[in-house]
Write a structure and sequence with these properties.
Chain lengths: 227, 227
């Protein structure tokens, strides 16, 4: 498949690498290609310098946000929370049209230090904002409740016996995303929370997730819902 | 033990009944005793009319918020979110002094319909507001992430193999609350999230919890944290 990845951070890199490894053609989109290639600092989570990482992954190419969206059969939004709406705008409504957008972003606000608060919550969510920004697209919020390395390898934890959530207005799009997440990464357990307004739930779970990370000393964690 | 319970709703009733059954003396506090006894409507969750319920539970007595706090060795706040700070104020700083307050309340705002939003979140929490309202007391936020009947009987679900969270500034108070929750109700698994500011996490989990209830069709649910 042709997959458009918005965002060059650890989430975008981790997922792009895994998808390319599985034979997919991934175009990673960024605001300024030459600036991204000129980066000399390693990633915030110890990733290599971006241009070096790109050379190591021949199945991944770099382009503008619009380049990433244009050829894509599915678009994955893996930008930071504060960059998400700009990335969607730059990707362009005509490139996104009625495509599925898997939205992984979290509206984390680091401006007041650690742990971050949320820049949108309670009566709105970033998932809803993205859906409003491209009404024809089918936004499916998922994967935002786990760390990048667990997104692409859920069986690293309890053989995958833990849950992912899905929020989105289009039932068929959610079913398609479930099939992809099973096929691409081996996810086993999903809970469809409902329409895109339910993205408030998994986004507002982040403050608990961040404190669980602090209490447990690892971000390699997830929750199993028991009923 | 002498236990002071703030709140006459389903959480207060469920916990008071269980504690009285185990031989504790529980004083349930309310704003207006005669008004509470004069209620003729059943509880919102199908509980009997309050005065009838009280007669069925001889180990439970009714008093003002101050009465409930005055004799208590531990105070449990089980009011609604919008009544919590008033209840704490009426209980009185001199009655609460340096006691442990187990705070179960959630700042749910039903004014815009269902599902509720939160009246405080993100950069503050109800747990913190209560701690600020009675600085000498030892507020421990816990139990607010599960439904009332599960609070007092965690083994109804997966034999108790799921988690409770604790937030509070006083480490010894949290350890004492853990001992009580084991002894009173049979809870097995706890995660100490840190100081009272970490109450933002479990309170902001409520929007996810509410949507899990909707998706799964039952509030008899909890999460197991896997790492």
């Amino acid at each position: 498949m042709n997959i458009g990845m918005l965002g060059t951070g650890v989430v975008g890199q981790t997922i792009a690498a895994k998808l390319a490894e599985n034979g997919h053609a991934v175009t990673v989109g960024t605001r300024d290609v030459s600036q991204t290639l000129a980066r000399t600092e390693p990633g915030a989570y110890g990733q290599p310098v971006f241009s070096a990482w790109l050379k190591e992954h021949p199945g991944v190419s770099l382009g503008s946000f619009a380049d990433a969206a244009r050829q894509a059969e599915v678009v994955i939004n893996a930008t930071s929370g504060d960059g998400a709406l700009e990335a969607i705008a730059l990707a362009g409504a005509s490139n996104l049209n009625s495509k599925i957008i898997i939205d992984i972003s979290n509206p984390l606000d680091f401006s007041q230090g650690m742990p971050p608060s949320l820049s949108v919550c309670n009566t709105d969510s970033l998932g809803e904002q993205i859906q409003r920004a491209c009404p024809e697209a089918k936004v499916v919020k998922t994967l935002n409740t786990v760390t990048a390395s667990l997104m692409v390898n859920p069986r690293r934890l309890a053989d995958g016996e833990h849950h992912l959530f899905l929020s989105g207005n289009d039932v068929e799009a959610k079913a398609q995303v479930v099939d992809w997440l099973k096929e691409w990464f081996g996810w086993k357990h999903f809970i469809d929370l409902g329409d895109i307004t339910t993205a408030r739930g998994p986004e507002m779970y982040l403050p608990l997730w961040l404190r669980l990370w602090g209490a447990l000393g690892t971000g390699m964690l997830n929750i199993q819902v028991i009923k």
